[in-house]
Amino acid sequence: MYMSNTNLYSLFESRFPSDRHQTAFEGPDIQPWSFAEIISKSAQMAHLMTELGAKPGDRVAVQVGKTVEAVILYLACLRAGLVYLPLNTAYKAAEIEYFLRDASPTLMVCDPASLDEIRVLARTAGVKEVLTLDGDGKGSLSDRAEASPTTFETYNNTGEDLAAILYTSGTTGRSKGAMLTHDNLISNAKSLHNAWHFEAGDVLLHALPIFHVHGLFVALHCAFLNGSKIIFLTKFDAKTVIEQLPKATVFMGVPTFYVRLLADPAFTTEACHNMRLFTAGSAPLLEETFNAFSERTGHVILERYGMTEAGMITTNPYEGLRKAGTVGFPLDNDVRIASEGGEIVADGEIGILEIKGPNVFKGYWKMPEKTAAEFRADGYFITGDMCQKGSDDYYRIVGRSKDLVICGGYNVYPKEIESFIDEMPGIEESAVVGRAHPDFGEAVVAFVVTDGTMPGLTADDVILYVKEKLANFKVPKQVYLLDQLPRNAMGKVQKKDLRERAAAE
Ligand code: MLC
Ligand code: AMP
């Protein structure tokens, strides 16, 4: 059979072990799956979605728990040429409504528990059909796919065709759909597989959520390209990770995972004896975590840096020194460090990292102006991350020019929370900043000025208001009521003062 490597799924299938009965997925909470089952089940789901009227290029929005069936749904979308649109399970109705209206998907798959609510949103957004998939992999998607043929001719797309749209919040408060092509994902997967020396016999221990770049692309793609078995955990839990580690060789995590593993005395050199590689990213790994990890386990965490729009951009070396506080060297993309105005800064100076390469996305969905504003005329994408290249040639992410807080690996854009709080009755205005947090790295904190129309309004009222409508990780861990926000002579809110104040509290 002809295999087109411009379809990401075809590339994966070409790398699956020739003995298709080998195990692809296993785990303490799931039944084992063979590669043969992954291939046939993804064929069935691809047939079902096609029969329901989804055509190549159509979007499939997915908000479901972490199951192997959800991974298969992703593969089925690739096979049918559909554009996979994963959504964080923490998102609430108001957030989902925006994504559905913006992306106008043909199909949506959700948890049966939210079916009634999603149906209403889907109808107004013109979604043709809503299917369900629960935390055990059951639901109308699985049931209906059962009746479909177990073989499917994978769509022969071009590498420029979209494989996925991942929404990332913006500094203006409106989420933007980053359009990722098959070629974007293929090039980055190959770069990582190569850079991290994946080898025969590797087993990936997977504990990340599968609706973001890290768990969905970085982790799964490396394992698929290697034809590796995946020990699939439905969520991160330090105890379960420690129990499963002896069967694995590779583990990927956000810094919070490593902080939590180190907090457990059962996390020892012995528990890690079979391991080859630990990688970290999505947020800065503190030097103290990096050092404590090597002292405890004898392993040196490999920190890498990336983002939704480009996948992985830099990585510490597999062979050679992995340095704390650095993100290593560029992968297969060109990078440069420039001022806000676009002038390349001198070596050693801090500037904003700009990147260009096959991994860089095609643009923001239906937002040509925003896309244009974030690219230079010569095609470099402006990451918004402040970066410095040391005299040792290692790259260091030293801050962000974008107003962004990263909590436990999830991005929170203050503007979105501020706009939401500002609409609360009794609120005049608000300002949201990040504060150091021992578990999540950073925590969201809000400063709020009331307008006097709701006497007795408390900080807890504000927290409850946000909790009701926005994803839980966006809810401020603390709210302070102020008489006024600190402003400079130009009237601009002084977030630096607020950050200092939050840190001192
Ligand atoms: C949970 N909570 C958080 C939070 N996660 N608060 C802030 N930030 C977070 N990340 C809060 C909940 O609101 C809740 O509060 C309480 O913690 C318990 O919720 P939980 O769901 O039980 O938490 P837990 O399962 O412990 O989740 C923590 C976590 C999870 C670290 C395991 O957040 C996680 O899996 N993070 C990984 C994120 C990730 O994959 N990022 C990659 C993005 S890709 P309350 O008050 O309601 O009780 C990317 C590109 C790149 O960035 O470079 O990789
Ligand atoms: P996201 O939009 O969720 O893909 O988040 C991407 C952002 O996470 C980047 O722009 C960085 O700000 C941050 N990030 C990812 N990896 C690292 C890292 N290793 N160190 C510091 N920041 C990181």
What's the gist of this structure?
This protein is an alpha/beta fold.
Question: How would you describe this protein?
Answer:
With 505 residues, the protein is of the alpha/beta class. Among the domains are: 27-157, Rossmann fold (3-Layer(aba) Sandwich), CATH 3.40.50.980; 196-300, Rossmann fold; 405-504, 2-Layer Sandwich (GMP Synthetase, Chain A, domain 3). Helix content is 31%, strand content 26%. The chain has 15 helices and 25 strands. The strands form 6 sheets. It has a 9-stranded mixed sheet. A 4-stranded parallel sheet has the order 4-3-5-6, sandwiched between helices. Strands 16-17-19-20 form a 4-stranded antiparallel sheet, with no helix packed on it. α1 (8-15) packs across α8 (213-226) and α7 (182-195) packs across α8.
The quaternary state of the protein chains shown equals single chain
Category from helices, strands and their pairing: alpha/beta
As for the CATH topology of the domain at 27-157, it is: Rossmann fold
Helix content: 25-40%
Number of strands: 25
Task: Please give the CATH architecture of the domain at 27-157.
Answer: 3-Layer(aba) Sandwich
Report the CATH C-level class of the domain at 27-157.
Alpha Beta
What is the strand arrangement across the widest sheet? 2-1-10-9-11-12-13-14-15
Give the low-confidence spans: none
* Rg measurement, Å: 23 Å
